[in-house]
Amino acid sequence: MAIRPADHGIFASAVGAAVAVAAYFAGGSTGSDSAVVDKFAFADDSRTTLSTGLSAGREELAGAANSAVAAYIGGGEQSNTRVATVDKFAFPGDGRSTLGTGLSAARAQLAAAANSAVAGYFAGGNDGSRVTTVDKFAFPGDGRSTLGTGLSAAVIELAGLANSGVAGYFAGGENAAYSRVDTVDKFAFPGDSRSTLGTGLSGDRRLQGAAANSGVAGYFAGGDYNKITTVDKFAFPGDSRSTLGTGLSVGRRALAGAANSGVAAYFAGGEASSGRVTTVDKFAFPGDGRSTLGAGLSAATNFLAGAADSGIL
Predict the structure, then answer these.
(1) How far lies 100's CA from each of 144, 228, 305, in Å?
(2) Domains of the chain (ranges plus CATH)?
(3) How far apart (Å, rounded) are the C-alpha atoms in residues 112 and 93?
(4) pLDDT by residue (tens digit) across 227-256?
């Protein structure tokens, strides 16, 4: 689907145009399970913390958004117990509800991506064992189905993003042999057929953050045991991979990503060699120059989830 300038709020006065609003980073671990949802306003990157957070503190969860409508934060681990819960935060007021139908099974260490205005996808993870499952929540009613074709391999600690209107991508993770992988699975919209990219990540890795500039490129950042700074960029629609000359400001894993599509990607939190961090790095499109926000997360957090209200995609 072609991305028009108005889709990114450039023509904010256009009748009916939904303007990009904010990135949301939810849950994770601060040493204990967190229910906090931090919101970063795109107008000035200022941070507020929602008065209503997640329905319960949880980590190793995943997030995706029906941009201009709602963010969905699903799955994870709560008090060392995996859950199927999917919390929904309606834009612009951020009121929270919890879907009557959650994931098809309680699972953690999963990833999510969304085809805005159509459906959100929650993929892979651990429900007691590693799974290939991809659950699909159809917008706006949020009815859940499970794709007949799941991931190409059962993995945990993967990352997800979407070129909205075109395809969702799920990358990396750790397989049943406890080996990290560089695989990138692509699910083409609207039929959800799966292919696997000939060029995967620049290395085998897990625990990345991911974000996308819809219509342009997807970014997979950080991750791995040794907490790397690498940011791989996949250019749409051909899916060719490059690696940014400037990576994250500090090597970290178990971070989260979200994007103001057409403007910038944000990678928040995670675990560096020094421990959990509050850091939020911002990569400005189209040049991918990196800055670090003056106000980071409200607490040092890893294993969190990200989603964004980028307006109409």
Answers:
(1) 10, 38, 21
(2) 18-309 (2.120.10.80)
(3) 23
(4) 999 999 999 999 999 999 999 999 999 999
